[in-house]
Amino acid sequence: MPAPVTPEPISGPTGSIEESLLVPLPPQDVYAAISDVRRMREWSPEVVAVWRFGQRFVGVNRSGPFLWFTTCRIVVAVPGREFAFDVTTFGLPVARWGYRLTTADGATLLTEYWADHRGGGWRGRVVEVLGRAFTGTPPEQRAARNRQGMRTTLQRFRDASVRAAP
Fold first, then answer.
1. pTM of the model
2. Coil, strand or helix: which one is 156?
């Protein structure tokens, strides 16, 4: 489990989305699972591998014929409350992905969020071109695609949690 990290503000996103789902586990159990990024491939429709090195990790993703990697840094790690990481590609900012946990009637409302960090200027354009080349998704479709992936991830997480519950 990662050490607590002071939350950083999300700076300059050009868009953000979030999806939530009730998970029949206490927040500390949900946090323990979701903060183990190596397990993300169990739930995400795109993640195929994760290599973790302390507060940093590399994610390997696939969608159809497209395969790409991202470099990630954990930026929020508050056990039982929130876990988030910033994503870069070739050193350029891409997004922040995270999970907020709220107690709800003996269960956990798990909210997955994504904030676009591509920004404007030449760097943002480079990341958009790389994103389209590696993922096959045009920038204007990124939020919709991520929203669908988030729904799948949350549903798979909840289903796995229910199956594993005593």
1. 0.88
2. helix
Structurally, how many domains does the chain consist of?
A: 1
Compute φ and ψ for 24, nearest 5 degrees.
Answer: -80, 50
User: Counting Cβ atoms within 10 Å, is residue 61 exposed (0-12), middle (13-18) or buried (19+)?
Assistant: buried
Q: Answer yes or no: are the C-beta atoms of 2 and 74 closer than 8 Å.
A: yes
CATH of residue 59:
3.30.530.20
Handedness of CA 96, 19, 102, 157 (dihedral sign): negative
Question: With contact defined as beta carbons under 8 Å apart, do 62 and 74 qualify?
Answer: no
pLDDT over threshold 70, residue 2: no
The phi, psi pair for 35, rounded to 5°, reads -85, -5
